[in-house]
Amino acid sequence: MTTTISLPKRSSGGDELQRIVNVAKLHLTARFALLVLPWLILAMIFVANLAIWLLIRTAAGDEAMSEAGDGMQFSGASTFIFVYMMVVAVQAVNATFPFALGFGVTRRDFYLGSSLVFVALSAYFAAGLTFLNWVERSTNGWGLGGRMFDVVYFSTENLLTQFLQFFLVFLFFFFIGAATASVYVRWKSYGMIVFFIVLSFALIGAAAAITLTESWGAVGEWFVSNGPFGVALWLLVPTVLSALAGFRLLRRATPRN
Fold first, then answer.
1. Helical ranges in 103-150 per DSSP H
2. Are 243 and 175 in contact (CB under 8 A)?
3. Alpha carbon of 191 to those of 76, 84, 116, 179, 183: distances in Å?
């Protein structure tokens, strides 16, 4: 009597690609919160900035506006959307990972699908901010001399360079958020406590070392010499490290309450 043993078939590349796409679709189920809501919140922040610029222009008058306008070249209002995307990445990993595994998705496919969404969203929001940057520059700060998307240091005349800057910064926040969420998925609250303790000591230690060696001037020179695009390129280092760390952590993570 002959016994036949059937070996499991290796999934084809097409099947794996489909699983990755399905993970991406899973992340995009809440399209309004992901694709529309950030712009609505940013629009409200923009309207508030417009009101402030108008008040400054009215109070200062045309003669003093040249001096008052210098302070309107700096703004951190648009940073909201980067932090929002980091929160999106945290929720994408923390909330979706256990659900996806329940449907038989592998950890590798989940992370690749999530990364695909992060890249696509980075391009989407970078394109939007680049357009707003161009409009703001073309209208001399919306006719009021204010800056929200075309702020000092980060501004550049080349639209492609501007897009790449935004794109790289978005990638940085996405994968930092994903790596942080992976720590929680892997070790839960104890892991997060240790993570933030280590992070706090690292940041304080770095600041102390720079202060004690009187190197803040060198830090400033580094930013000036590299320029905004150079700094954005350097962000690829922590971005890639965070992406690799997140993948390694999720490979060993076991979803549990």
1. 107-138
2. yes
3. 31, 23, 26, 12, 6
Nearest to 179 by CA among 104, 93, 62: 93
Q: Are 63 and 220 in contact (CB under 8 A)?
A: no
**How far from chain centre, in Å, is Cα 26?**
19
Least confident of 10-14, 76-80, 97-101, 238-242: 10-14
Cα angle at 220 between 175 and 157, to 5 degrees?
A: 70
Q: Quote the CA–CA distance of 34 and 121 in Å, as a whole number.
A: 9
Domain boundaries, the chain: 20-252
Short-list 181, 162, 22, CA closest to 95: 181
Two structure tokens written together for 255: 């979803």
Residue 226's nearest CA partner among 174, 165, 172 is: 165
**pTM of this prediction?**
0.89
Q: What is d(CA 88, CA 172) in angstroms, rounded to the nearest whole number?
A: 13
Please give the mean pLDDT across all residues of the chain: 87
